[in-house]
Design goal:
The complex is a heterodimer. By secondary structure, chain A is an alpha+beta fold. Chain A has 22 helices and eleven strands. In chain A, the strands form two sheets. In chain A, strands 3, 4, 5, 6, 7 and 8 form a six-stranded antiparallel β-sheet that branches. In chain A, a hairpin with a 5-residue loop joins strand 7 and strand 8. In chain A, helix 11 packs antiparallel against helix 12 and helix 20 packs antiparallel against helix 21. Chain A is globular, with a radius of gyration of 27 Å. Chain B folds into two domains: about 30 residues; about 100 residues, Beta Barrel (OB fold (Dihydrolipoamide Acetyltransferase, E2P)). Chain B has four helices and seven strands. Chain B starts with a helix and ends in a 12-residue tail after the last helix. Classes of the chains: A alpha+beta, B alpha+beta. At the A-B interface, helix 3, helix 15, strand 1, helix 16 and strand 2 of A face helix 1, strand 1 and helix 4 of B.
């Protein structure tokens, strides 16, 4: 099996090189034979990567510790599902996993386009082959997961890092990778459009779903990472502006700008250059993020170990940037569009403004993330940007964005008359004023939360108003029931109403972010029988006790919570000791989740002075809104992606 | 038409400039320099009263918890340089002898008062693998 894996990986490298070389020859000579070799070589290579991955998974499941990778990230006692998670736990496996996802995308795109877009696909495949070749070189020569332990050495397996033994860790990496890697598809089409000089909106229509899908996956992946940090790391938050987190949000930001601005190219054939630059930046940022987390150049809590790979990744990123720049310069005449903005109060300029805000947000995060490297180069000293920087910059930009979420959809294409604008704005503005005033009456005084509240109300009223007006108009014309009218309306314009649902989800997330500003915490030591007060809740330490489990021993603390003498819940934070992993200690957070607030407790040292337990308890308002918001965003994206009935009828007629 | 276009370009450039200035000017308060223990000892006055970030190893046997386990004293080492650290708060799970830590806080009266203590988890697993007992390497 090990031989099968390593051989497949080597063969994949050979086939991929073959595909790349013949693809280039075909591009120059236009020889059909080379084009066939290129296409098939790439497919075979992708297939071989899947074989290699299955071989590694098999070794992980079979606990073959003669393989160095398996010995490091698994052990006989590791629960089965976490043995599987070993695939992405370490550097070598995670790079192979990156390739696996790329392989899946390549096979899918290749299959779906086996008889379509042939001239475009030649270049698309060439881009796929380039990216694939790079990662194949890395996994074959630098970080090979099929390396055997040195002869004579034996191991019973180190086991998977207990921190990673959390259900979320089973789905967070695959989904994140589906997002990261998926952006290669629209990127490849953009390059193909440039190379073949088909710079109309065709490539954008072809990749509409293939940009929304990775965008959605990347978003889910980021949120799942937040959930994991919240439920497992025990500091009570879900986002810390850590370089690794920033690396994942950067392509998401440019990707979000992209899925907005392509709408203008679809509708008006404007912004060709801008869209190409956005998707290029997004792809470059995904590779850059993959590099950041593996290079060790930024100190991060959850980065992989430093490795020699840095220079190679850096070279690859430079190569992409260089090729993209050259290609754009060569095609700059074809990229300028004939249409111009007609008015500042138009949907187009709304989208443009939205894009500028996203770019500002990207730059703010990028600047803060890269500051240690920049400052070392310029001032000779490594300086980190603390979270105050990120909060100062991203919060106001985020609120501005929220304002645009509200205004943008109210603007009409081409130009909006002042009268229409006023009419559309009345209800949202009135709602915003009422909400802000209500917030002030309830004692809210800080400026950002107040602004956030007002803007959330503003956008919410706008979306609901838009939906109701649409439904009413349909009912008046066709006499449909409200529900049918709603369904037909959404089906007629899935992009628009899917987008409206996504925006609704964004609102919930903003509510959650705002709530986080009001979390309270207490760190203290309690003895059995003692209690403490936090925001009207009484936390009483009943007792603590020891339990023996399959791969660890746990100390469990019973912390009963009551309010007004009525019991609310019993929080049971744990402190686990994993004997197998040199008695590594791991705390299990206890969370009691309600829509409006989470009660959160974590146990530190147990058995201090007089049997006390060191505890951290928190009350985190509205955290659940962040998770709920992200679910709504997924639903909205799926609505936008789903084929409409009119599409299907068209297909049937053509068939 | 031409003039309106250039007006638009000027407007965007101005906005970009303002945003860039707002991002980059006046960030001193938010900057956390990454210093070495040697630098800290060489010129303590320069670094006092400002937030700093340091990375190093926890000296084996130096960890002393307070009676209520809500704070801890330990010694951080970087090669031959040592620094006594006082951290208040619950310690992260991987905090123990010889692990690599990153601390944030202020240097006062020869002791580093940290309010943020992070352990580098993944690297321990990566570097230690197969050869238990060896020092996890630093990669800063």
């Amino acid at each position: 099996m090990i031989l099968l894996g390593s051989t497949s990986l080597q063969l994949a490298l050979i086939f991929c090189s073959l595909a790349l070389v013949s693809g280039f020859i075909n591009l120059v000579k236009r020889d059909l034979r080379f084009s066939l070799v290129s296409r098939r070589g790439l497919m075979v290579s992708a297939f071989l990567i899947l074989v290699a991955t299955l071989a590694l998974v098999h070794q992980l499941m079979a606990s073959n510790f003669s393989l160095e990778y398996v010995a490091r990230y698994s052990s006989a006692a590791t629960p089965t599902m976490y043995k599987f998670a070993g695939l992405w736990a370490g550097m070598e496996g995670s790079l192979l996993f990156w390739l696996t996802i790329l392989g899946i995308y390549v096979l899918l795109i290749g299959y779906l386009n086996r008889r379509r877009n042939l001239s475009l696909m030649l270049v698309v495949n060439l881009v796929f082959a380039t990216v694939m070749l790079f990662f194949l070189i890395v996994t074959n020569f630098f970080e090979n997961p099929f390396t055997l332990l040195p002869p004579g050495a034996s191991s019973r397996g180190m086991g998977l890092n207990p921190l990673l033994q959390h259900p979320v860790m089973l789905i967070h990496p695959p989904i994140l990778y589906l997002g990261y890697v998926g952006f290669v598809v629209p990127f490849a089409y953009a390059i193909a459009a440039l190379v073949t000089r088909h710079m109309d909106a065709n490539w954008i229509r072809l990749t509409r779903r293939w940009s929304l899908l990775p965008w959605m996956f990347l978003g889910i992946g980021i949120v799942l990472g937040g959930i994991w940090a919240y439920a497992e790391l025990g500091w009570g938050g879900y986002w810390a502006w850590d370089p690794v987190e920033n690396a994942s949000i950067l392509p998401w930001l440019t990707g979000t700008a992209y899925i907005h601005s392509v709408r203008i190219q679809e509708k008006k054939n404007m912004l060709r250059l801008w869209n190409v630059i956005l998707i290029m930046s997004t792809f470059i940022l995904t590779i850059f993020g993959t590099y950041l987390t593996r290079s060790g150049i930024l100190s991060s809590v959850h980065a992989f170990a430093a490795s020699e790979l840095g220079i190679w990744f850096f070279g690859f990123v430079l190569l992409i940037i260089l090729s993209c720049t050259i290609l754009v310069i060569l095609r700059k005449d074809e990229l300028t569009s004939q249409n111009r903005l007609e008015s500042f109060t138009s949907r187009e300029s709304g989208f443009l403004f939205n894009n500028m805000i996203f770019v500002a947000l990207t730059l703010a995060v990028l600047w803060g993330t890269m500051f240690p490297i920049l400052s070392e180069a310029v001032r000779g000293m490594k300086i980190t940007m603390g979270s105050p920087y990120f909060n100062r910059t991203t919060v106001p930009i985020g609120l501005l964005l929220l304002l645009m979420v509200g205004i943008g959809p109210l603007l009409a294409w081409r130009r909006t008359s002042l009268g229409t604008l006023k009419r559309n704005l009345t209800i949202p503005v009135a709602t915003a004023i009422v909400a802000t005033a209500g917030g002030m009456l309830l004692g809210l005084r800080q400026i950002y939360p107040l602004l956030s509240l007002g803007l959330v109300a503003f956008v919410f009223a706008g979306i609901i108003n838009e939906l109701f007006r649409g439904i009413r108009a349909r009912r008046r014309i066709s006499g449909e029931s409200t529900l049918t009218a709603f369904r037909n309306m959404v089906d007629r314009n899935r992009s628009r109403y899917g987008g409206a649902i996504v925006h609704l989800g964004v609102l919930f997330m903003f509510v959650g972010f705002t709530g986080k500003a009001f979390s309270t915490e207490q760190e203290l030591a309690l003895k059995p029988g003692e209690n403490t007060y936090l925001k009207g809740y009484v936390f009483k330490l009943d007792r603590y006790y020891e339990v023996e489990r399959t791969n660890h021993r746990a100390w469990i603390v019973d912390l009963s919570v009551s309010r007004n003498d009525r019991p609310v819940t019993i929080l049971r934070p744990e402190r686990r000791i994993y004997i197998e992993q040199d008695s590594q200690v791991q705390s299990e957070v206890a969370i009691h989740s309600r829509p409006l607030q989470d009660l959160y407790a974590i146990a530190g040292g147990i058995g201090g002075e007089n049997n006390s337990v060191a505890l951290k308890i928190m009350i985190n308002p509205l955290v659940q809104m962040v998770w709920l918001g992200s679910i709504i965003i997924v639903v909205g994206t799926l609505v936008a992606i789903w084929p409409s009935r009119t599409d299907q009828r068209l297909k049937e007629r053509l068939a | 038409m031409k003039s309106q276009r250039s007006k638009f370009v000027i407007l965007i450039a101005a906005v970009a400039l303002i945003v860039f200035g707002w991002l980059t000017i006046g960030t001193e308060e938010e900057e956390v320099p990454y210093v070495s223990i040697a630098e800290l000892h060489e010129n303590p006055n320069r670094w006092e009263q400002r937030r700093l970030r340091l990375g190093g190893l926890v000296e084996a046997g130096s960890i002393v918890y307070s009676a209520d386990k809500l704070s801890v004293d330990f010694v951080m080492v970087q090669g031959d340089d040592v620094l006594p650290v006082h951290y208040s708060g619950l310690t992260p799970d991987l905090f123990q002898d010889s692990v690599e830590v990153i601390i944030e806080g202020e240097f006062r009266d020869d002791v580093f008062a940290a309010d943020n203590l992070m352990t580098k988890c993944a690297s321990r697993y990566e570097v230690d693998a197969g050869a238990p007992g060896t020092d996890p390497g630093t990669n800063n």
